[in-house]
Amino acid sequence: MWQFNFAFTALPPVADFANLVNRMQSTFASIAQCSYQITLQTQPDLNELASYWSWVLQQTTQRSGAFQGAFSQVMPHVQGDHLVLVFANQAWAKYAQQTGMAIINEQYRKLGVKHDLPVDIQVDEQKAAESAAQMAMQRAQQEQTLAEQAKVQIEQAQQQRKQSASSKPAKANSDRAIGRKMASDLAATPMIEIEEEERSAVIEGYIFASEARELKSGRQLIQLKVTDYTSSFIVKKFSRDEDEDAFFEKLKVGTWLKARGPIQQDDYARDLTMTAYDIEIINHPSRQDPYEGEKSGLSYIHIL
C-alpha cells in the first residue's frame, strides 16, 4: 500500500480532488494500491463538507450491505450549525447513529477534517425521497465535471506527446483494444469470485447489453453488461479521444472482451461495477451446452 500525503491551505473542490485521486489510482494500479491523507490549514465549513458527501460514500463501497442500504439515498443539507440527515425509517436512522456515521467520519478524517461531522438525524419518508433526488443530481453533476476535466487533461497530454519524444508505456492495438496493452497470459478472475471492491481486477466475458451516450463535454460514456457465465458485471468507460469513440462502436452485443480496472460499488445500480482503464476485444469459442434436453438456468450474483 502506498500512501500519498497532501498538505492544502483549504479543502479543494470535490471534483478537483476526485480527479486527482482517480489519476493517482489509475497511474499506479499495476504497481500498488494507493491511499491518501490530507492535512489542512483551514477547516472546511458545512457547505464544503456537504459537497464531498456523495464522493465520500463512493469511497466506502467496500462496507456492509447495511451501510449501503442506509446511506445510498441520503443527502445532507445544512441547517444552522448542523448537517441534517433524513432517513426513510427508524431502522436506518438507528444504524446511522450507532455505526454508520463512524465509518463516514473516518473517511472525512482522511480529507483532513479534525472533528466528527455535526449531524442531526431525522426520520421522514417524504423528505427522504427528496434527499434521494438531490443525491442523484449531485452525483450526475460530479460525473459531468470529471468528464470535462478528463477531456482537458487528454488534450494536454496529446499536446505533450507532440512536443516530447520520451518513451511511453506500450499501448494496445487501437483496432482491437484501448488503454494499456495487457499481457497475453494475463489471467482473468472469474466474476463469481469478485465479491467486494478491488483496486484493480481483470475480467473476461461476453457482452449481452451495450449502451453509449454522449456527454456535454463531447466525450462518450459506454456502459456494457458482461457475463462469463459464472456471474455478470456492468463495465463502464469514458472515451478519451475520437479513436476511443470509434472503438466503442465495436463493443456490440455478442462480442467477447477482456477488461481491467477498479471494482467499485455503484449506488444507483446497487451492485459492484468496473470502471475500465483497458479493454481488449478477444476471440472466444462459442459456448456449448453440455448435454441435449432441458437447459439449466444461470444464476448471476450481480444483478444488473
UniProtKB/TrEMBL annotation:
EC annotation from Swiss-Prot or TrEMBL: 2.7.7.7
Residue stretches making up the OB domain: 203-282
GO terms of molecular function: DNA-directed DNA polymerase activity; nucleic acid binding
Biased composition (Low complexity): 151-172
Keywords linked to the UniProt accession: Nucleotidyltransferase, Transferase
Signal peptide per UniProt: none
Location of the region described as Disordered in the Swiss-Prot/TrEMBL record: 151-176
Record carries keyword Nucleotidyltransferase: yes
Presence of keyword Transferase: yes
Domain DNA polymerase III PolC-like N-terminal: 51-167
Pfam families in UniProt: DNA_pol3_a_NII, tRNA_anti-codon
EC top class named in words: transferase
Protein name as it appears in the record: DNA polymerase III polC-type
Species of the source: Weissella viridescens
